[in-house]
Amino acid sequence: MKNKTVVVTGGAGFLGSHLCDYFVRRENKVFCVDNLVTGNIKNIQHLLKINNFDFIKHDISKPIKINAKVGYILHFASPASPIDYLKLPIPTLKVGSLGTYNSLGLAKANKAKFLLASTSEVYGDPLVHPQKETYWGNVNPIGPRGVYDEAKRFAEAITMAYHRYHKINTSIIRIFNTYGPRMRIDDGRVVPNFIYQILHKKPLTIYGNGNQTRSFCYYADLIDGIIRLLKSDLHNPVNIGNPDEFTMLEFAKLIQEVSGTKVKLVYKPLPEDDPKKRKPDITIARKLLRWEPKTKLSEGIKVTIDWFKENNYGKK
Ligand code: UDP
Asked: Domain 5-178+218-240 is of which CATH architecture?
């Protein structure tokens, strides 16, 4: 990967900015493409003055030209939290479809390696547990989450088509719930919501009865998985996530223990089509990428709470 130019779409977002850091540290030339709709310039502020880093404010749903020979394209642009894609349904559909098409066009023109950030949402509200990559999913195409799920399913389809038809070297990562520094405190997801509530001694909002499950992966483990997949020749989708599964009630208990702050619970309605269970089967990542997550949820959550405190992100 040495000396290659890297394009990260969504490079000012939570995961995208950590990827920019990774490549800048390794002295790759990095182009960060982001329209800042859900990304935050603060995430890349420290990189703006660095020579081998260029920020291009651009919506990747529109075609792009890069004046350099590109070696790697990591397509991470998209609203990614349920409240974001409910607020931005059409940009979400566009970036998953047209944005992926434009990014693949760039890969084709440069004969670059292309990595698509896909999602566990392609499994919808899964009827198979844990989810293996061979499961086709249970998605409501016209429900509120359909704009994200179907855009990412289309993104996977067009990526495989470019691989098969144009012989582009592509990989697809299916990312399960990930958390850590640089998440937005107001992105509506359970980790920042609970941290905000803990920091302000407000009750934790439990949607539904709290028995739905998720498996949370620390961002640094995820970045390691992304890089291993990028270096591999695996073209079929690979799940990357932490298989330790928690109910939201268990998670509410854990976050109170880690922070040493006890608050009440309040119950709110369960959002439409909220998946009841989610846990990745990571056999492929374990065997073929020699990857598995290392960070315990309690450790990662502690670091994340401290980061929100230090960065004054505790304010919305
Ligand atoms: N959730 C919750 N309270 C909150 C926010 C979310 O109980 O304040 C639940 C939500 O209903 C879902 C789970 O936490 O079952 C994870 O939600 P999130 O929005 O983080 O991501 P998702 O996995 O649904 O995309």
From this structure: 3-Layer(aba) Sandwich (3.40)
Distance 220 CA to ligand 1 centre (A): 21
| Alpha-carbon gap, residue 108 to 85, rounded angstroms | 29
**Secondary structure (3-state) at 268:** strand
- Residue of 194, 248, 267, 278 best suited for mutating to test ligand 1, as the one with most atoms within 8 Å of CB: 248
Both structure tokens of 314 = 């505790």
204 phi, psi to nearest 5 deg: -80, 130
The string of pLDDT tens digits covering residues 10-27 is 999 999 999 999 999 999
Q: Show which residues are catalytic.
A: 148
pLDDT tens-digit map of 38-51: 999 999 999 999 99
Whole-model pTM? Answer: 0.97
Q: From CA 139, how far away is CA 123, in angstroms rounded?
A: 7
